[in-house]
Amino acid sequence: METQFDEQEWLGTLKEDREQTTDYYLTSFDWRGVAVPEDYNGPRYYPPDASWRFNARLDRQAPGTGAHVQLLTSVGDLRDFNVAGDFVFTVDGQEHRLTAYSALPAHPGHDELFVPFQDATSGGETYGAGRYLDVPQQEEDGKDSNYILDFNTAYNPSCAYSPRWNCPYPPPQNKLKIAIEAGEKVPYKH
Fold it and tell me: Which residue of 6, 45, 129, 152 has the smallest Cβ count within 10 Å?
């Protein structure tokens, strides 16, 4: 859990991350044979909004924690994960849960928890198949750990840009009924 929130530092980091992502999609992304839309000039985002940052607890006692699971992907494959637990957070007085995963096999240097989700914006302002959060993993001490879920960092899977990518779908329990108006929007208007 962060000790003190510096909004200016957070805004600067978010701006820098978005600029790097835009550069990646404009100069390095593999579209895998899909034509780049003529007016495409990089990912589209909701404006930064610190109210979409939430204190969250990683419930390591949630049903299924520690289990090996397979998530269906956009090309019909199955991707292997371990269930790390459920992130528990509150929005407008309502408790919400999102299951967090660790990729299998583990990738050295990638110590983030993977949180695929859908919300009430999915299929409208945001990509219909859902978006992802990567949350830096903390040391386990046998207890629930405190985290920050920052939906301003929610991003589209690569298959939002090219259907030839193989992207895991969010599981049914990770469909939020609320509208998360933060993070990346659909890449371009169709």
Answer: 6
